[in-house]
Structures are given as structure tokens and as C-alpha cells.
Design brief:
By secondary structure, the protein is an all-alpha fold. Helix content is 79%, strand content 0%. It contains 7 helices and no strands. The longest helix is centred in the C-terminal third of the chain and has 33 residues. 3% of the residues are buried.
Length: 151
Amino acid sequence: MKGSKAGASDANSSTKRKATGGAGRKPGKKEKKLGKDPNKPKRPASAFFVFMEEFRKEFQEKNPNNKLVSVVSKAGGDRWKSMSESDKAPYQAKAEKRKAEYFKSMAAYDKKKSESSGGNASAEEGGEGSDKSKSEVEDDEGSGEEEEDED
């Protein structure tokens, strides 16, 4: 009986080691999350979440005593699954409209961000992003070295 406990604790300790080994990498990811820009536009809601915005209001009117989010979510999910494609179409159209607005606001955000960063603003406005700026930087470095050699 002692041997089985020792084997079980060895298995648990190896599992714990694996868990702590993976946890060592997570702070790096969290550091990136802490650096989020609060001015960055939020991603648009999917068609389902557009539907849920309206469904929650209807459900609360019909069931004012319900305080559980899980009940509302389950009822909304069941209703969405039972809807036909033609019933979902208006929600999908709203979601596409929000998506288009999101891309416009992201383009404006990216342009503003690149202008505030300074030097590479003209390279990023072209729409090719970092690839174009890398090639320009490499060209500039090469031509700068040649000029120094000539002087």
C-alpha cells in the first residue's frame, strides 16, 4: 500500500512540475497584454452576439425574476440554433456593417499611430507596412555606407 502511494505522489509531482514549467512562460504573455492601447478600436460583435443583444432585452421582459446569465445564454443559444438562415440574415448584415466600420476605424487608428511614431510614417501609409519600411531601411543603410566610403 505504501508503494502505491509513493507511485501516486511521484505522478502528482511530475504533473506539478509540468504545470509550473508552463507557468514560467506565461508572464511574458501577460506583459504584452498589459501594454494594450486603450485607444485601439474594439473588435466588432459577430452575428450571434448582435442577436444576443436583442434577445437579452426580450428575455428580461418575459422573465423579470431571472438573475442567472447562464439561463439567458442557454436560451439564446438554443434559439439561434433553431433559426433558419433567412432569420439570421438581418443579424449577419448588422455584423457585416459593424465589421466594415471597424476596419475603417482601424485604418484611421493605424494611420494615426504611424504618424505619431515618426520616421517611418510615409512607408506605412503605402499600405505595405513593415516589409516596405524594411527594404527602405536596408537601401538607406547601403547608400549611406557608400557615401561614407566616397568621402
